[in-house]
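Retro notes (design track)

What went well: tokenization of the new backbones is finally stable.
What didn't: we kept losing track of which sequence belonged to which structure.
Fix going forward: every design gets posted as structure first, then sequence, in one message. First example under the new rule, 196 residues:
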């Protein structure tokens, strides 16, 4: 083992692999361990663009069933989708926990309280070895990555509903179903020629 450029922009090393292997053993113990060869295989990784086509994060999905999703994320950029205005999103899972394995990230969170008022918790810092649990009804944006390319999280997710997630209008408290990002499929394909 050493340092490997798995894909353009995605460089993995023994530290990242070790943190991931330890995290999986601790937080997803029923899943077979990833070998180094599996971890650095390009076909196992999906490079996810931001809304400008730049590499936002790399994802390695370890398990994806109706009952559970487990994936490794290596973060490069914030996950902001609304330009100058917050556009927080939720997720298709009833709940998930993002275990921060290396470095960390900051997020802003919003939710609608029982009176229908939008509430916010801004500037929440998650640094290794933090666990960030996000339940349905919590909307967020990842606003800063502490060490781009070396911030690693392990998402352990419960049951999900395909197509369920969307955005919170922070002015009205209304949930808006996901809308396709213009040219997202083309940007995704451009970052992932190894998946064609």
């Amino acid at each position: 083992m050493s340092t490997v450029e798995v894909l353009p922009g995605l460089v993995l090393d023994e530290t990242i692999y070790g943190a991931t292997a330890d995290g999986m053993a601790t937080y997803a113990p029923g899943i077979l361990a990833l070998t180094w060869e599996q971890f650095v295989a390009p076909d196992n990784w999906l490079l996810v663009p931001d809304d400008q086509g730049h590499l936002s994060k790399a994802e390695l999905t370890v398990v994806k069933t109706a009952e559970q999703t487990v994936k490794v994320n290596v973060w490069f950029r914030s996950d902001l989708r609304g330009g100058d205005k917050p556009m927080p999103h939720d997720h298709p899972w009833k709940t998930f926990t993002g275990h921060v394995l290396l470095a960390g990230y900051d997020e802003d969170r919003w939710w609608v309280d029982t009176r229908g008022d939008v509430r916010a918790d801004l500037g929440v810092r998650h640094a290794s070895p933090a666990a960030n649990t996000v339940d349905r009804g919590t909307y967020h944006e990842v606003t800063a990555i502490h060490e781009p390319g070396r911030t690693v999280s392990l998402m352990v997710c419960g049951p999900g509903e395909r197509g369920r997630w969307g955005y919170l209008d922070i002015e009205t408290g209304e949930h808006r179903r996901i809308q396709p990002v213009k040219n997202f499929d083309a940007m995704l394909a451009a970052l992932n020629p190894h998946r064609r």
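Added context from the reviewer: The mean pLDDT is 92.
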